[in-house]
């Protein structure tokens, strides 16, 4: 059984069908890149999977469990990990405190152990250690005491990935994870995605415009164009296919412009 699947997933905005009957299954332990031109429906597809948008038609399932009617929070609890919107955080708490809260949120049931001071103290120490480990992995350890609101943009993107890791989801959904990062910052995030990929229990969906990144990381590429899934397969074959050359890389359009 696939880890995640969408069946005829569709959303209309007025007369515009932004995602059009997309049926796709994602196998556990694979990294699928989702590519397509601007406005193709990639982020909208993510929003439908994570529940930020309600589908007009179709279904989303996780290990066979139908998630379609569930709100985003329930999908997160079921194992879907979508990068946090930083607006959902506590902007005046520190980076460490925010990550620690996410680590804590990912461990349901701990509070039911009762009010035992030793367990509260040891829990707090363990949660802090885990949060610090994650911050180290995303190269944010030296920013751990800064209020989230004062982080520069590149560090905010790293924090999004840190919070996702804190939740330890089964499905990682990355939407252009290195967008807006400097050349020295992007490799940290790409290394993390490589490490997640090696952990064959995780399933990764990656929306990415940079084809060199896609070529290196993806086991499979799917292509959206005008909300429709137009290509799906092994990276080299998909990148070489006429539909991608035309729809995504724009060779046909460029050739036509050159001739005009
Ligand atoms: N809330 C909304 N209301 C109306 N139209 C929307 C809404 N969200 C997305 N759209 C439209 O749906 C289409 C797909 O947008 P989407 O952002 O998913 O594309 P994308 O492939 O992620 O593009 P990009 O690569 O530029 O991020 C676009 O035409 C967009 O204008």
- SS class: alpha/beta
What is the name of the CATH superfamily of the largest domain? P-loop containing nucleotide triphosphate hydrolases
Give the radius of gyration: 20 Å
Fraction in helix: 40-55%
**Looking at the structure, what is the overall shape?**
globular
Helix and strand element order? EEEHEEHEHHHEHEHEEHHH
Beta strand count: 10
What would CATH call the architecture of the largest domain?
A: 3-Layer(aba) Sandwich
Could you say which small molecules are bound to this protein?
adenosine-5'-triphosphate
Fraction in beta strands: 15-25%
- By DSSP (H or I, 4+ residues per run), the number of helices equals 10
Low-confidence stretches: 252-260
CATH third-tier fold name of the largest domain: Rossmann fold
Number of domains in the coordinates? Answer: 2
Q: What is the terminal-to-terminal distance? A: 50 Å
User: So what's the CATH class of the largest domain?
Assistant: Alpha Beta
In short:
The chain has 260 residues and is an alpha/beta fold. The protein is built from 10 helices and 10 strands.
What does this structure look like?
- The strands form two sheets. A six-stranded mixed β-sheet has the order 6-7-8-3-9-10, sandwiched between helices. It has a four-stranded antiparallel β-sheet with strand order 2-1-4-5, with helices on one face.
- It is α/β, with parallel strands linked by helices and 260 residues long.
- It contains ten helices and ten strands.
- The chain folds into two domains: 1-79 and 169-260, 3-Layer(aba) Sandwich (Rossmann fold), CATH 3.40.50.300; 88-167, no CATH class.
- Residues 252-260 have low confidence and may be disordered.
- Helix content is 40%, strand content 23%.
- The chain has helices spanning 42-50, 72-78, 95-105, 117-137, 153-167, 186-198, 211-217, 235-240, 242-247, 251-259; strands at 4-13, 16-26, 31-35, 57-62, 65-66, 80-82, 171-175, 203-207, 220-225, 228-233.
- The protein binds adenosine-5'-triphosphate (ATP).
- Adenosine-5'-triphosphate (ATP) binds next to helix 1.
- GO terms for molecular function: ATP binding; ATP hydrolysis activity.
């Amino acid at each position: 059984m696939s880890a995640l699947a969408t069946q005829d997933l569709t959303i209309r905005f007025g007369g515009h069908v932004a995602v059009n009957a997309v049926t796709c299954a994602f196998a556990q332990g694979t990294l699928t890149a989702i590519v397509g031109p601007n406005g193709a429906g990639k982020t909208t597809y993510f929003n439908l999977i994570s529940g930020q948008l309600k589908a007009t038609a179709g279904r989303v399932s996780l290990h066979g469990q139908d998630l379609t009617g569930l709100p985003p929070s329930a999908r997160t609890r079921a194992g879907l990990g979508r990068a946090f919107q930083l607006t959902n955080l506590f902007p005046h708490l520190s980076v460490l405190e925010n990550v620690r809260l996410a680590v804590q949120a990912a461990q349901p049931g701990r509070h039911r152990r009762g009010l035992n001071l030793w367990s509260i103290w040891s829990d707090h120490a363990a949660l802090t250690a885990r949060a610090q480990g994650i911050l180290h992995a995303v190269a944010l350890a030296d920013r751990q005491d800064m209020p989230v609101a004062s982080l520069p943009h590149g560090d905010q993107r790293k924090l999004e990935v840190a919070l996702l890791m804190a939740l330890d989801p089964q499905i990682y959904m990355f939407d252009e994870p290195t967008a807006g990062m400097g050349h020295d910052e992007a490799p940290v995030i790409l290394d993390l995605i490589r490490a997640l990929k090696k952990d064959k229990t995780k399933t990764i969906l990656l929306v990415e415009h940079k084809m060199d990144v896609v070529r290196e990381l993806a086991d499979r590429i799917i292509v959206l164009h005008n909300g429709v899934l137009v290509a799906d397969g092994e990276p080299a074959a998909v990148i070489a296919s006429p539909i991608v050359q035309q729809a995504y890389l724009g060779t046909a359009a460029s050739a036509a412009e050159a001739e005009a």
